[in-house]
């Protein structure tokens, strides 16, 4: 992408409405624009990151055997009357009437609708296990939308729902979700700690939230800091192997890690003092096992091997896709701007032309741009007629992992400069070597 032809409305000034760094940088880097409280347009740069996060979520869900579909954003109120949640949900639910005076709502979550799909088409244990998920916009009329996309009213969520014949199979689905979530967050360059949580309006008693530690987080968290060193890494996981998947979950949930809702001071005090930590965290996901709460009220049953009919065992599992942009920036930035982890960066590398219009510099930049493209990497090429300082400031702000700087002086010696955004270190090398290093 050539910056001269792109749409990157960078702001020079700090927007007054932004209280936290991720919100500030997302506005300044031209990633989002607020359209109403808690409702945003995703400008091209922000949209690219959003799509990359979605892609990781899709890949990891499907790796775990979960099946994508797409449900609508608008739902009929009648489904929610069946489960009893239409009245319970309260003011967070945006209620709408259509022209025929029918009660509709903008979905804050989809347990009812997925249960309706299941009961219409599945009736036998032979069709289980089944986990369906989608990535779709949700609306919650939050009392205090704030911090940009971190607490929006309209936000993008991955929500998945498992259907199983018995409790053990449903707990295996729960565990599969935990492991696939850990993998997803790691690919995004995040450490998200599973913490025992309270269930809220979804119901059920088996639930974990995934928290990214950040002092701007809204949840108070209590943990043994050895939990932050746990990594899934590149290990091979067989998602059908109940024992293996359960062992990973145990590894990640044995050390103490809880939010204030489930915090137990007596247990916490047993942690050696040097490892006992109190901090704040951003909730980037949550998994629930709730058994037959919805299947019973909505009549979603299956016939078992012995011919009896039982309500199907369920759970639901969410990832805050749009919130993750904020969480990643909170966890990875400096005073110049964002530092994107490689897994989610909008472009893998930027090219800065120090003397636009100079024949040999332009030619060298074009060569690098095409060389990267040949290796499957789309660079963001700053080909504008701008001062070097402004170009560097933009690149630092938008936080691409690598920058290749090309100018007449270096080229005279056959060199360009390769700079790593995270470490700030620069190295001179030939254009070919720079392309090879990035790729
Ligand atoms: P919170 O405690 O932050 O209000 P929640 O517990 O109500 O979140 P869930 O129902 O667990 O949210 O939804 C799954 C995920 O969706 C959350 O873990 C979070 O990452 C994301 N999410 C929830 N509400 C919002 C919001 N208003 N804006 C952006 N993301 C959200
Ligand atoms: Mg909430
Ligand atoms: Mg919560
Ligand atoms: Mg939650």
TrEMBL record:
Transmembrane segments: none annotated. Keywords: Aminoacyl-tRNA synthetase, ATP-binding, Cytoplasm, Ligase, Nucleotide-binding, Protein biosynthesis. It is found in: Cytoplasm. The keyword Cytoplasm applies. It catalyses: tRNA(Pro) + L-proline + ATP = L-prolyl-tRNA(Pro) + AMP + diphosphate. GO terms for cellular component: cytosol. Residues 38-341 form the Aminoacyl-transfer RNA synthetases class-II family profile domain. Its EC number is 6.1.1.15. It holds the Pfam family tRNA-synt_2b. Homodimer. Catalyzes the attachment of proline to tRNA(Pro) in a two-step reaction: proline is first activated by ATP to form Pro-AMP and then transferred to the acceptor end of tRNA(Pro). Belongs to the class-II aminoacyl-tRNA synthetase family. ProS type 2 subfamily. This is Proline--tRNA ligase. It comes from Gemmobacter megaterium. The gene is proS.
């Amino acid at each position: 992408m050539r910056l001269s032809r792109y749409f990157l409305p960078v702001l020079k000034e700090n927007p007054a409405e932004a209280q936290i760094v991720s919100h500030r940088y997302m506005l300044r880097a031209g990633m989002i624009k607020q359209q109403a409280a808690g409702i945003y347009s995703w400008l091209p740069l922000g949209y690219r990151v959003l799509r990359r996060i979605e892609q990781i979520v899709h890949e990891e869900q499907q790796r775990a055997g979960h099946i994508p579909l797409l449900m609508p954003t608008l739902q009929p109120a009648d489904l929610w009357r069946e489960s009893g949640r239409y009245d319970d949900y309260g003011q967070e639910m945006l209620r709408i009437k259509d022209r025929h005076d029918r009660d509709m709502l903008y979905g804050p979550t989809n347990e009812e609708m997925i249960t309706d799909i299941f009961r219409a088409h599945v009736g036998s244990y032979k069709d289980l296990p089944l986990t369906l998920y989608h990535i779709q916009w949700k609306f919650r009329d939050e009392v205090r939308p704030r911090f940009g996309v971190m607490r929006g009213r309209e936000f993008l969520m991955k929500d998945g729902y498992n259907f199983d014949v018995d409790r053990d199979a449903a707990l295996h689905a729960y565990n599969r979700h935990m492991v696939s979530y850990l993998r997803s967050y790691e690919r995004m360059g995040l450490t998200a700690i599973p913490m025992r949580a309270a269930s809220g309006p979804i119901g059920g008693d088996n639930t974990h939230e995934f928290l990214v530690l950040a002092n701007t987080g809204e949840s108070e968290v209590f943990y043994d800091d050895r939990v932050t060193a746990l990594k899934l890494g590149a290990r091979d996981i067989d998602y059908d192997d109940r024992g293996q998947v359960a062992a990973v979950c145990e590894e990640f949930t044995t050390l103490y890690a809880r939010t204030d809702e489930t915090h137990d001071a007596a247990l916490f005090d047993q942690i050696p003092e040097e490892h006992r930590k109190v901090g704040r965290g951003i909730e980037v996901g949550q998994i629930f096992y709730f058994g037959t709460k919805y299947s019973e009220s909505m009549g979603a049953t299956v016939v078992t091997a012995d011919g009896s009919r039982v309500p199907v065992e369920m759970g639901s599992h969410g990832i805050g896709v749009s919130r993750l942009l904020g969480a990643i920036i909170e966890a990875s930035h400096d005073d110049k701007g964002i530092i994107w982890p490689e897994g989610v960066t909008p472009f893998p590398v930027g090219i800065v032309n120090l003397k636009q219009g100079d024949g040999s510099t332009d030619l060298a930049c074009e060569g690098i741009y095409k060389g990267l493209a040949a290796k499957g990497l789309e660079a963001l090429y700053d080909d504008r007629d701008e001062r070097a300082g402004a170009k560097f400031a933009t690149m630092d702000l938008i936080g691409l992992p690598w920058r290749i700087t090309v100018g007449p002086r270096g080229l005279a010696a056959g060199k360009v400069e390769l700079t790593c955004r995270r470490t700030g270190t620069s190295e001179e090398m030939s254009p070919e070597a720079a392309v090879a290093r990035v790729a």
